[in-house]
Amino acid sequence: MTANCPECEAEITLAKPIRGEIVVCPDCGVELEVTSESPLAFDLAPEEEEDWGE
Amino acid sequence: MNHIDLLHGLVKIYSPSTQERAVSDYLVAQMRALGFRAFVDDVGNAVGILGDGARDVVLLGHIDTFHGFIEPRIADGKLYGRGSVDAKGCLATFVSACARVGARDGVRFVVIGAVEEECATSKGARFAITQYRPDFCIIGEPSGWDRITLGYKGRVLVDYEIAQAMTHTASATRPPAEEAIAFWNRLTAFAAEYNRDKPRVFDQLDPSLRAINTNDDGFTDRVAMRIGVRVPMGLTIAQVENDIAQFADGARVEFSSEEEPFRAEKNNALVRAFLSAIRGAGGSPAFTVKTGTADMNIAGPAWQCPIVAYGPGDSALDHTPNEHLDLAEYARAIDVLARVLAVL
Lengths: 54, 344
Fold this sequence. Notes:
- The complex is a heterodimer of chains A (54) and B (344).
- Chain A contains no helices and 6 strands.
- With 54 residues, chain A is mostly beta strands.
- In chain A, the strands form 2 sheets. A 3-stranded antiparallel beta sheet of chain A has the order 3-4-5, with no helix packed on it.
- Chain A is globular, with a radius of gyration of 12 Å.
- Chain B is an alpha/beta fold.
- Helices cover 32% and strands 30% of the residues of chain B.
- In chain B, strand 1 and strand 2 form a beta hairpin.
- The A-B interface holds A 18-22, 33, 45-54 and B 86, 118, 141-143, 147-150, 152, 200-202, 266-267, 271-273, 275-276, 284-294, 315-316, 318.
- Strand 6 of chain A pairs parallel with strand 14 (286-290) of chain B, so a sheet runs across the interface.
């Protein structure tokens, strides 16, 4: 199944997508989250923050 | 007992590291009342097991707190008190979410309130890793109800000491205090070089000077210095210790409280369950990495299973006199975690 990267519109094909799976766009390198398996759809993956904490 | 009473009861019992027995007994009693098989284990951890099956989900929180009692009170929808955020709120979230989901076929929920997380021994977690081999692990530390913590930096403590025969202050000999400062300057310069082009604190080597003491007995001049070094992913504790030892220049340097940095994977069923649960509860999930250490540094490498840290609260309030937990956020975190536990 194929869908476009929401960042750079590159075509990305996944054989067995899993909802919630994190993939990296091979063209622009942004992290994407699979938001739908059929039809395949991506959204930008949650951002990674950093903070103090133990 | 509702979830607020449970947390209030935990916070009322002051439990700094090594003084956890009373609160462990209290938590065990509460978990038994909720249907857990609960006990205090050989090192003092409060353990509650719900369900039976081949798949273990370990929820590893800690029951000790930073020192300094804060009189517990509820005001304006917030529960104030030592440990409300770090991390009895997380532990109460674990117990409440497991109780809400109840026993599931084929799954065993193991809630652990570990002792001595707030001191360098991590005694409770070190014992727990010898007792269980979970399929999934959730560490109880405040991430905020809509965030998932994926990693913690490592840490090593450095004790530097040098002594030399006293000389007159007018002599050309450099006194030990200056030797110590020169060592500190070499270490910070090394870290600054390593940190070049690393804007995120999580990626930086971060030394901090904790204490410096000088003394003399009229014959020998001494200086002792303690430095904490936060170690990023990409470096090992052994590498950092080797580098630091080269700056010693004849002084005695000892290392302790070593914790390797750890970062969990994102692509697994545990993370996917959290992303879905946070969205299901109306949130927009985010990942976070922490610049401190936690029991994830111990459990992650030992168990090699999908692992995250999760719990309600703002970790900026950890160890502060104003420590408090928003009770609405606490309820949302229980909701999220129950959704996660229902599908693992």
